[in-house]
Amino acid sequence: xxxxxxxxxxxxxxxxxxxxxxxxxxxxxxxxxxxxxxxxxxxxxxxxxxxxxxxxxxxxxxxxxxxxxxxxxxxxxx
Length: 78
What we know:
Elements: H1 2-27, H2 36-40, H3 67-77
């Protein structure tokens, strides 16, 4: 029975601490943007790390196609 006298106040202190930490987090904007990080991973931001030869569906800056793209287009036509 003596352990209950120790555990109940300890539990109340831990709950109060948890409520205080949660309210601090809400006031400081920790929960403002819940969707941003989840959607950010879907964006392809590593395009500059892929070698130009390995890229597909990207045109050259001067508008010309690679030889591989030209041969692919020629084989698709006929």
